[in-house]
């Protein structure tokens, strides 16, 4: 299990804020959609006993996701003021999931209704999990596969029609059963609902036992530091899934309440783990400010940003510039393999935090940062201290001490 997303990625109306790598998600969703579409064509089509039945299966399997996508697009457009592309892609998958069970027993009209409901259910499901239940489901898998899988199973009891080619749903007495909306009553619908409850109970018991075993042996959660750093690095030795071919973007939400790390018994001294370097100014340059201004640059592990940010807030530091950087010091990176090829991982992902102070004591900032970053290991971070000649606020023209004050 991983750290949730709810402090920053859901707005007050329950809308999911778009991730930075949306284009990647868009492409991945298309690949998944087409792959699942092809698999379902093969999987469901393989059960066909005639060309007519095969054609009917292909028709319903195409119509349902198409309608789901359009319905989701219109609904999100009306609700949010613009169509939600990522939600529409999930709706396409949801339509495929929902039509899997009834694909050979319904017709095009039934497939349209099933797909339309799927397009609405996927929006409701994402909103329910993310905004109400606060269950971390970054890709909306529960809304797509669980909720719409249940809907598709129940839909058999509603839209099964004897007009579908090769229709063969019968009870144990050989009596043909059809859906509620095609004059079959509630018998088939009841059987489908019983099936949903049976599968849910079986899966619930099995997965509960499995999770209890995993919890007893390994634990269900990784360490808080690994949640922030990402398992690519802690478990697989990669700074990112792209093995340093792309800059990572791992500056996390502020104020998560991450506690200070317990210091190990063999810890290195704090001055060695977080060294401070004073960069002296050019003595020939005269400062334009009558109040000393100091710039403090902190290079640290990404996983310590929340602790550092909380510590800075407590001493009155309200402004900082944070940048993702790559680099290495005494750690010298790490050796890892990428797709079976050994690689020298010389650059490690870090954050660079830049703070300029005049009212707050630089020594207080330095000491606070050292305590926040210190874990007892070499490479906890490094702090650089610079004297600043002058600061100019562009909006007002204020300089020096006045430019740093928030009036």
Write the layout of secondary structure elements.
Elements (H helix, E strand, L loop, with lengths): L21 H24 L5 H30 L4 H16 L7 H26 L7 H19 L27 H31 L6 H6 L1 H4 L35 H4 L2 E4 L13 E9 L3 H10 L6 E7 L6 E5 L2 E5 L2 E10 L4 H12 L7 E8 L19
Parallel strand pairs: 1-7
Antiparallel strand pairs: 2-6, 2-7, 3-6, 4-5
Helix pairs in contact: 1-2, 1-3, 2-3, 2-4, 3-4, 3-5, 4-5, 5-6, 10-11
- Give the end-to-end Cα distance, rounded to a whole number of Å: 44 Å
Helices, by number, come to 11
Any low-confidence stretches, pLDDT <50, length ≥5?
1-23, 243-260, 337-341
Total number of β-strand segments?
A: 7
The percent range for helix content is 40-55%
Global outline: elongated
Radius of gyration equals 29 Å
Q: SS-based structural class?
A: alpha+beta
Percentage of residues in DSSP E strands: 5-15%
Give the SSE order as H and E letters: HHHHHHHHHEEHEEEEHE
Largest sheet: 5 strands, mixed
What average pLDDT do the residues reach? 79
Strand order of the largest sheet: 1-7-2-6-3
